[in-house]
TrEMBL record:
Keywords: Membrane, Transmembrane, Transmembrane helix. The keyword Nucleotide-binding does not apply. NCBIfam families: photo_II_Psb32 (NF047379). The chain crosses the membrane at residues 221-243. Residues 64-187 form the TPM domain. It comes from Synechocystis sp. (strain ATCC 27184 / PCC 6803 / Kazusa). GO terms for biological process: photosystem II repair. PANTHER family: UPF0603 PROTEIN YGCG. The keyword Membrane applies. This is Sll1390 protein. GO terms for cellular component: plasma membrane-derived thylakoid photosystem II. Pfam families: TPM_phosphatase (PF04536).
Amino acid sequence: MEFHRQLPMTVAPHHPFNLSIFCKRLLSFLFLTLVLLGLSPAPSLATGVYDLPILSPGSKTFLVDQAEAISLANENRLNSDLKKLAQSSGQEARFVVIRRLDFDATIDGFVNDLFERWYPDEASQSNQTLLVLDTLTNSTALRRGETAESLLTDEMVDSLLRETLAVPLKDGAKYNQALIEADKRLGAILAGQPDPGPPALEEISLEGTFTTAEETDDTSATVWVVVLLALATLIPMVTYFWYVGLPGR
């Protein structure tokens, strides 16, 4: 007679699910994620001439806001004003707003390169004025063609950049206000009217209704923090009910 002996089976020890430990690990992971998001280098935001759309005389676009620093209402206003100026006087002025230049570029070199790319010959350059604003350094530069230069003198350009634009930019990086004031002054000069000059300093200091790029960045960061905190609350609850089942079942 044969006897078959059954060997005892080895059962792996059961580790009960510990919700407290799971939550601590999850919160640690989310905290680490937040730290990494804050420390990781942002993608390159530098702008080169070839990163911008190609425009030419007669183009319907008068504002290129690559930095997203201008509100939609003011973008529409600037495009409308500059379009009317082109239709009434034949003088075309365009504004370009960028986040920052390449590390080896200058604002003057950038505006010259862009001007010659958009208007490659003297005939196309004659009635053109191009203003560039870099939001990282708040630096500005202007280039104009031969006919525009007869209306917009070197002294006017210097005053436009150093007063009309520079003052609101230094006073809280008011990009919207800076371009609106530049639009008013350029519109009058290029239309053949007397130069109205820069706005009074007290008038500029009272303006505080525009959202700056810094405020926009702070809002985005707050949204991300709220979303991650909400996930930190919901994920442990969903995981818990996944393991133990819904109440009453």
